[in-house]
């Protein structure tokens, strides 16, 4: 693997595919119009956005009129949660979420708590999944929104989304779902899953950054998050990044078309990585569900070493991963997800997330296992904890 950097951080972001870039380029230089303009340039841009809207809709099984483009899933999450609760606060003030959500959801809920809303943060089991009975028990006559992710971004556990949707439908509660990590890895059907609002982000599936989408079921009333012009049927102001939207449409079309074959391939790599780490390195553990997990996610804890040291050592050996703790962002606290599944601070701090992608190979997996075995042995020899 000499002189080649191995990228195993696809859950953080993905490279833009060549086919996606090729689709985007004309909309920077030739068809560059504003989608609200009535002349040819505007019509060309609008037509391209309409095609992308159809591509996104087909990928999640909804009508294209229910797809709204945003600047990313963080905006989509904020819009869905704030927009719905503000618009329906006269009906109730209770929100249900989980302890392992992305911060785009958790911080939004925390803000709403300061404004008088009540939020229940459902606990998770040792694998990071909510219990349906806990969800049912948490519902009150004041509950107006449930917001639970489709798959966890850190440990890869897939939530029982269809069951969550069924409970919400039974109680006539709106279900918002952050599906950022799921696109291209899990079949998404908003009708079958009874999802009312769904957030996705282009750069997680080989599209450009700064573009996302929100599915909003027909009849769902939301307050506007961004005030201004009449874009997106007067629901989301701001000139559309139509070149990015074209890229998102192409990217989601490709990743869904290739999902079955590519997910099977990545599952083999994932399982080989887990098996190799477990056999080669003592005192390691897999975090997240052993089987109900994303095809590209491996999150492992290594006792007696710090995640930051592991991450930096891997980087020096030409391997890019993410730490399982928040120490690299300046926080002394480990990941809220790892603490929620019952890990101690010490073990949570020694965690690493590997996330595979369409570029990943078995050769890279084997090199990563060899490298990690060497790194862990060296760090443990220097650790006062070992």
Any key phrases for this structure?
Aspartate Aminotransferase, domain 2, Aspartate Aminotransferase, domain 1, alpha/beta, four-stranded antiparallel beta sheet, 386 residues
Characterise the protein shown here.
The chain folds into two domains: 18-257, Type I PLP-dependent aspartate aminotransferase-like (Major domain) (Aspartate Aminotransferase, domain 2, 3-Layer(aba) Sandwich), CATH 3.40.640.10; 259-382, Aspartate Aminotransferase, domain 1 (Alpha-Beta Complex). Helix content is 41%, strand content 14%. The chain has helices spanning 18-24, 26-29, 40-60, 73-87, 103-114, 132-138, 161-170, 231-234, 242-257, 259-280, 307-316, 336-340, 345-349, 362-382, and strands spanning 6-7, 67-70, 94-98, 118-122, 143-147, 174-178, 197-201, 212-216, 284-287, 297-302, 319-320, 322-323, 351-355. The longest helix is centred in the last third of the chain and has 22 residues, at 259-280. The mean pLDDT is 94.
Task: Please give the alpha-carbon distance between the first and last residues.
Answer: 30 Å
Order of helices and strands: EHHHEHEHEHEHEEEHHHEEHEEHHEH
Biggest β-sheet: strands ordered side by side in the sheet: 2-8-7-6-5-3-4
Specify the number of helices.
Answer: 14
Largest sheet: 7 strands, mixed
> Remind me, CATH topology of the largest domain?
Aspartate Aminotransferase, domain 2
Structural class: alpha/beta
């Amino acid at each position: 693997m000499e002189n080649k950097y191995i990228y195993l951080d696809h859950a953080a972001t993905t490279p833009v595919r060549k086919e996606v870039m090729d689709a985007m380029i004309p909309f920077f230089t030739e068809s560059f119009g504003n989608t609200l303009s009535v002349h040819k340039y505007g019509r060309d841009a609008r037509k391209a956005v309409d095609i992308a809207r159809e591509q996104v809709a087909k990928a999640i099984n909804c009508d294209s009129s229910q797809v709204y483009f945003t600047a990313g899933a963080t905006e989509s999450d904020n819009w869905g949660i704030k927009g719905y609760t503000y618009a329906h606060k006269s009906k109730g003030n209770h929100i249900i979420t989980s302890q392992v959500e992305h911060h785009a959801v958790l911080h939004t809920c925390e803000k709403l708590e300061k404004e008088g809303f009540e939020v229940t943060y459902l606990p998770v089991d040792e694998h990071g999944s909510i219990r349906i009975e806990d969800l049912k028990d948490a519902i009150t006559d004041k509950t107006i929104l449930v917001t639970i992710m489709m798959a966890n971004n850190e440990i890869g556990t897939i939530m029982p989304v269809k069951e969550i949707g069924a409970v919400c439908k039974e109680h006539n509660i709106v279900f918002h779902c952050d599906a950022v990590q799921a696109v291209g890895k899990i079949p998404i059907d908003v009708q079958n899953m009874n999802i009312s609002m769904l957030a996705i982000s282009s750069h997680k599936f080989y599209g450009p950054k700064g573009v996302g989408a929100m599915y909003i079921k027909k009849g769902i009333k939301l307050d506007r998050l961004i005030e201004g012009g009449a874009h997106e049927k007067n629901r989301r102001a701001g000139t559309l990044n139509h070149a990015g939207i074209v890229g998102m449409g192409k990217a989601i079309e490709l990743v869904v078309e290739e999902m079955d074959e590519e997910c099977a391939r990545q599952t083999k790599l994932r399982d080989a990585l887990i098996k190799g780490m477990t056999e080669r390195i003592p005192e390691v553990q897999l975090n997240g569900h052993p089987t109900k997990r994303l095809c590209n996610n491996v999150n492992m804890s290594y006792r007696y070493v710090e995640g930051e040291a592991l991450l930096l050592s891997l980087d020096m050996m030409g391997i890019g991963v993410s730490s399982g703790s928040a120490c690299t962002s300046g926080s002394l606290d480990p990941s809220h997800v790892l603490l929620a599944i019952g890990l101690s601070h010490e073990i949570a701090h020694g965690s690493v997330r590997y996330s595979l992608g369409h570029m990943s190979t078995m050769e890279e997996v084997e090199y990563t296992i060899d490298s990690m075995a060497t790194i862990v042995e060296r760090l443990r020899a220097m650790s006062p904890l070992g």
